# Entry
Amino acid sequence: MASAGKPSLSGTSAKSRARARSLLSISDLSRRDLGALLERMKSMKPAIKRGETLSDLHGLAVGLFFEKPSTRTRTSFEVATIRLDGHPIYLAADDLQTSRGEPIKDTARILGSYFDIIVGRVYSHDTLRALAQFSGVPVLNGLSDLEHPTQVISDLFTISESKGKLQGLTLAFIGDGDNVCNSLLLGASLIGMNVVTACPSGYGPNPEILRKAHENAKRSGSTVRVVDDPKEAAVDSDVLYTDVWVSMGEEKEMKRRLRAFRGFQINSEILKLASKDAIVMHCLPAHRGMEITDDVIEGKQSVVWRQAENKLYGAAVSLDYVKA
Ligand code: CP
Ligand code: NVA
# Structure
C-alpha cells in the first residue's frame, strides 16, 4: 500500500467521491468534460510513462467485470489502476455465478458493496445500465454492443497528439457501424471534428446515436455525413479509421458479413485519396487482409501502436473522472 502524500494530479482525496458518476456513453460527457479529460491525459501521460505512482485511486478497489475477451482494455485498466495506487481485480463473468443464472442486479448489488469502481465489458448495453443502477458505484463502459467510449477518449487524444488539434479535422470511418463507430460519431462531433462514415447497407451506425451526433455537430460547428462509398468518405480526410467486420458476439454472422463488407477496406488506394499527411487508426485487434491491409497498418501513416499505448492513459483519466 502506498503512503499518503504521494503526488496526485487531481489534487483531491481518492476517498472524496461526492460526485461519483458513471461513464457508459460518450453522451454522459459534456464538451467541456471531454476537453478536460483530454487535457488531463496530457499531464498524466508523462508522469505514468516516467513510472510514477500517482495517488488518485489510493486505497480504492476496481472490479473488472468482463463477459468478453480483451487484451488492451483489460490490461490498460488494470495497470492504470495500479499506477494510480488502487487495486484491480479481474472478474471473468464465466467464473461468476452470473454464468449459472444469478441475475445481474443481484451481482451488481454485491459487487457494489465490495468495489469502489466497476469497469464492465458486456454483450448488452443494458447489462451496464443494470450494473450502474444496482451497484451504487461508478461504472465505466469498457465496451458494450452499443459503445466503446473509453476507446474513443484515448483515440481523440491520439489524434490531437498527432495533429496538434481536433477542431476542423475530418475523420472518415470505413467499415462496420459498430460500437467503436458509434462512440467516434458522438466524440468527434462533440469536440468539433467532422465525421463521415461509409458502411455497407444495413450495417450503418445506430440511428439514435447518429441523431445525437448531428445535434452535437450543430452545436460544435462541425459536420456529420453518412455515405455509401468508402472512396467518397476517404477523400481529403485527416484520419482514416476502421474496426473489425465481425465484432465479438457476431461470430454466427461471419459468412454474411464477410460478403457484405468486401470493398470496405482501408488499403493503399483508399489512403491515396486522404490528405497527404492523414493518419490511419484501428482500435485493434486487426484482421489484416479484411478491414485493413498489412502494408497500411505497418505503414508510416499508421498510428495504431501509439493509439493502443494511449489506452493506458485514457483508462487512467477515465477512472479518475468517475471517482472524482
Ligand atoms: N481496442 C480494444 O478494446 O482492444 P481489446 O479488445 O483488446 O480490449
Ligand atoms: N467492434 C469490436 C471492437 C473490439 C475492440 C468488437 O466489439 O468486437
About this structure: The domain at 14-147+311-322 is CATH 3.40.50.1370 (Rossmann fold). Residues 143, 178-180, 243-244, 247-248, 283 surround norvaline (ligand 2) (CB under 6 Å). Confidence is low (pLDDT under 50) at residues 1-19.
